[in-house]
Write a structure and sequence with these properties.
Oligomer: single chain
Low-confidence stretches: 241-260
Shape: elongated
Structural class: alpha/beta
Distance between the termini: 20 Å
Radius of gyration: 38 Å
Number of strands: 31
Strand order of the largest sheet: 10-8-9-6-5-14
Largest sheet: 6 strands, mixed
Mean pLDDT: 93
Helix content: 25-40%
């Protein structure tokens, strides 16, 4: 036996070397990467380069989160998606500065502050003190949320975010109010608006959520006097003495009723809000509907015939219809209020539906938007016997001093006792609730500030603007149009403390309230210097000089300042004015991306303010993301153990795994999140990381002077580079089409493709060839190209991992591109990648068939391959790369017209013996000093 038989040849192999660890340990490593990005100014440096290159702008305008609590996984999804798109544009060479923003005024922050202070009633604290405390809490939560957003790996101008509490921002808010007032788009009026009695303020439609509520469902008689009954009867076809089955004479219209009584007649209404009955002044009917006059026992009832069976219940079986009339025929008649000394007028309204109730709708203009419009149409009194806290005023008669929800039961009992109640049952229905405190809201007629949707054709202009905006998904355009078409007058005033004041004046002589654009602009100038708190602290003359401010109604010059603040939806709706419109941040933005609820929220408020002032939309493209639910599809809830804050999730799994999860879902739909979901994504992440590690570990001795030009690469290496170009080009196309999920699937498939074919094929030439062997340098050149392109297109999603990988390369290979974010996203190559992919897929098919062989396997095998001439020519062009790709010791290839279309394989055991160094089966011992290795290996170690 030769003395060299026991030699260990491992030291002669080019074994992989890298400091890029297999174990990611993301929660520990990622904060250091965040610090590195900040220290090196990575984002700002690439922005400066893109600007110096004269490239175009691309702006994503950030919709501001509320600075009132920890960020959850819904925030994570939204904020990471924004970051992905910003980084795509950045690597595309665009000028894409990103200014993050925060909504820091309004009820969400005020309520959180009161809770923090342990104060239940906001009236118990001085307004200026509360404002100062709210500012402190808002800044505290901004810092907390900013830390989390930065920890996500998101790029942006974190040192200079926009804040709605900033003096310049408050000035912009008021300047916009002034512009709207000048256009007469802003007005003050009495309307029935949504009102939260818990928070004591008006609300906008966007601040409403619908939740189940159980209410008393009551059918109430509105009885007519004898004279009213006679007039009502005269309008019913067929109603006469005989048909009533009574010997009692019913007086005709205009006759004397003295001493003559007929059966009692009532209009039957249905309501689930008995507490609104004290404000009733009318009953609305449908003009075209048929109403029946029913004899039920000893009384007459009027209600819609189609609803009579359900409304009358068991009594319908014994009821007799003795006449009919249309709603239009009854218009203008009257009946009596069930417990107050006044009449209720019968009126017509388009909103009366014939699916529930009686077709006769109790109408209280002070407590309903539709009711209010009917009240204006018929010149009805607008009664609002309820104060801001939900307590009945003296106008409510016997219920004065009672809370409306407690009064419900009392009113029903009184209706029962008086005989006005027909029947009652509990009714569960969807009811509007305050989005913040989740308490039921009411409609309440108060004087508020509104933006008119129909003045200056604002509604139509907004609809026209929507048609010029792109939406993802496409149906978002219709959804947005619906939100404009159905938008009521926008109530922009709030009765709270923490916000930007509406600089309106109240005349001390006539009590009229008005917004003078000149006063508003003076207020804006003052706010820009010292903040909006000066509205409360400065003398009124600062804003309304006595020599230039006059009441437009009575000419007085004595005023008080109004204490309302502006709706926070209006504040966030003017962020585009406050942030955009400079050379570095042009207006409008290219993209906005928020949750689907923002079609009626920020998307809409931004659109309306922009169209009202500038006549066009403030954005070019609207993208919406879905909600994040738990693994069972239920809303996430921390109280149920299914909710998790973004900070905690990153501490557990790392940001990059979570970023990959965000890319793995169809984000425009509702998505699921939880340990099992993250576990599946984690497996994908580990596979991708290991592939990156393999490439890095085989570039440890490779430098720029070793790079083989593309045209001189070995055929298999050139093919892999062409396939990489195809992959990268398609990922970029997916990115540009907002198909993040599609890009994710391509990355996963590319990882599988490279792993199952090319990377396995390279192990032999990389490990066993001489370090400077041309075949090895060709393979390394291809690996560097593939890695570079993979890292570039993956960086928007896997920001931490790709940066870590790029920094693991030598300085020589990185060159001037210090960061992965210095790389170009796209590379011009001019190659027919589709043809390359076709050849690649056929080669993968052959490799899969060889790999499926259980015996012999890999280098134990030799392959005899027959292929049709064209295919055989393609394979022959690979040279020894064909054998490498099939990972066998030998291949013979023949062209044959009789071969299968995908090639005919014969797999047998390879000739020779296993080389101790390269493991291929070859003739051994050709070199006397190396009896157990093949000639190729012997030439390397000699």
């Amino acid at each position: 036996m030769s003395e060299t038989d026991d030699r260990d040849y491992r030291a002669t192999l080019n074994l992989p070397q890298t400091e890029f660890p297999m174990r990611a340990d993301l929660p520990k490593r990622e904060p250091g990467r965040v610090a590195w990005w900040k220290e090196h100014g990575t984002f700002a440096r690439r922005l400066a380069k893109n600007k110096a290159d004269g490239n175009p702008h691309w702006i994503l305008h950030d919709g501001p989160p509320y600075a009132n609590g920890e960020l959850h996984m819904g925030h994570f999804l939204n904020m990471v998606l924004k970051d992905v798109f910003v980084k795509i544009a950045l690597l595309d060479g665009k000028q894409t500065p990103f200014v993050p923003g925060w909504d820091m005024h309004g009820l969400p922050i005020e309520l959180e502050t009161l809770k923090h202070l342990g104060i239940k009633d906001f009236h118990a604290i001085d307004p200026l003190e509360l404002r100062e405390k709210c500012k402190e809490r808002a800044l505290y939560w901004l810092d907390r949320q900013r830390d989390v957003r930065v920890r996500m790996g998101n790029f942006g101008d974190w040192d200079h975010p926009y804040m709605t509490i900033a003096p310049e921002f408050e000035a912009t808010i008021v300047e916009t109010l002034a512009a709207l007032a000048e256009k007469e788009q802003l007005y003050r009026g009495l309307r029935s608006t949504l009102w939260c009695i818990h928070d004591e303020t008006a609300l906008a439609e966007a601040e409403i959520e619908y939740e189940p509520k159980t209410s008393p469902s009551v059918y109430v008689r509105f009885k007519a006097t004898d004279e009213q009954a006679a007039e009502v009867l005269s309008h019913f076809v067929g109603a006469d003495v005989a048909s009533t089955g009574s010997s009692t004479v019913i007086p005709s219209v205009g006759s004397e009723a003295t001493g003559v009584e007929g059966p009692p007649l009532s209009v039957l209404i249905w309501t689930t809000t008995p507490w609104t009955l004290p404000a009733n002044v009318a009953i609305a009917l449908s003009a075209d509907a048929e109403y029946g006059l029913y004899r039920v026992g000893d009384e007459l009832l009027v209600l819609a015939t189609v609803l009579a069976p359900k409304a009358l219940g068991d009594a319908f079986a014994d009821a007799t219809r003795i006449g009919t009339a249309t709603g239009a025929q009854l218009d203008g008649l009257s009946v009596r209020h069930p417990f107050l000394d006044r009449d209720s007028l019968l009126v017509l309204a388009d909103y009366v539906e014939l699916e529930t109730g009686t077709g006769a709708v109790h109408t209280a203009p002070g407590h309903g938007a539709d009711d209010f419009e009917t009240g204006v149409k018929y010149n009805l009194p607008i009664l609002n016997p309820v104060d801001a806290r939900g307590i009945f005023t003296q106008e409510a008669g016997p219920y004065a001093g009672m809370h409306i929800w407690k009064a419900n039961k009392r009113i029903v009992e009184d209706l029962q006792a008086s005989g006005a109640l027909w029947r009652m049952h509990e009714y569960e229905h969807s009811y509007p609730h305050c989005w913040r405190c989740h308490n039921p809201v009411i409609f309440r007629a108060t004087a508020q500030w509104f933006i008119s949707l129909d003045m200056n054709h604002l509604r139509q202009n907004a609809l026209d603007a929507i048609a010029k905006v792109a939406y993802t998904p496409e149906w978002g355009q219709n959804r947005q149009s619906q939100m404009i078409e159905t938008h009521p007058e926008w109530c922009v005033s709030r009765q709270r403390t923490w916000g930007t004041p509406i600089p309106a004046l109240i005349c001390q002589r006539c009590n009229d309230s008005f917004l003078d654009p000149a006063v508003a602009r003076r207020a804006a100038a003052r706010f820009r210097v010292a903040g909006a708190g000066t509205w409360w602290s400065d003398p009124l003359e600062t804003f309304a000089p006595a020599d230039s401010t006059v009441c437009p109604k009575c000419g007085s010059t004595a005023f008080e300042r109004e204490k309302n603040i502006v709706d926070i939806w209006f504040e966030s709706g003017v962020t585009h004015f406050a942030v955009l419109g400079t050379p570095d941040l042009p207006w409008p933005s290219d993209l906005v991306l928020e949750g689907g609820d923002q079609y009626r929220g920020w998307f809409r408020s931004s659109l309306l303010t922009a169209v009202a002032v500038k006549g066009t939309a403030p954005y070019k493209h609207v993208v919406k993301n879905g909600w994040v639910n738990d693994e069972h599809g239920r809303p996430m809830s921390k109280s149920k153990g299914t909710g998790i804050d973004a900070r905690d999730a990153m501490e557990k799994w790392g940001a990059d795994v979570l970023r990959l999860w965000a890319a793995s879902v169809e984000f425009v739909d509702d998505v699921r999140f939880g340990p099992n979901v993250v576990g599946q994504v984690g497996n994908v992440y580990r596979n991708v990381r290991n592939r990156i590690r393999f490439m890095l570990s085989n570039l440890y001795d490779f430098g720029t002077t070793d790079v083989v030009p593309r045209e001189r690469l070995e055929p298999l290496d050139a093919l892999a580079c062409d396939v990489t170009d195809d992959f990268a080009d398609n990922v970029v196309a997916d990115y540009h089409a907002f198909g993040i999920h599609d890009a994710y699937l391509r990355i996963v498939e590319f990882d599988r493709s490279m792993s199952s074919l090319y990377l396995d094929a390279l192990k032999d030439p990389l490990y066993s060839r001489a370090a400077n062997d041309p075949r090895r340098r060709s393979a390394q050149s291809a690996l560097f190209y593939i890695l570079r392109r993979l890292l570039a297109v993956s960086a928007p999603v896997l920001s931490f991992t790709t940066e870590e990988a790029w920094q693991s390369l030598s300085e020589d290979l990185r060159g001037a591109e210090q960061s992965v974010f210095d790389l170009p996203l796209s590379v011009a190559h001019g190659r027919d990648t589709a043809e390359a992919v076709r050849r690649w897929d056929r080669l993968r098919g052959l490799r899969g068939r060889v790999a499926a062989s259980t015996e012999p396997r890999d280098f134990e095998a030799r392959v005899a391959l027959s292929a049709v001439p064209a295919f055989a020519k393609e394979l022959a062009a690979l040279g020894d790369g064909l054998r490498e790709a099939l990972v066998v010791s030998a291949v013979t290839l023949v062209a044959s017209d009789a071969a299968d279309a995908d090639g005919t394989l014969e797999i047998a055991y390879a000739h020779g013996a296993k080389c101790k160094r390269c493991w291929k089966y070859r003739e051994l011992g050709t070199a006397e000093a190396h009896a157990e290795i093949c000639a190729d290996c012997a030439s390397v170690v000699a």
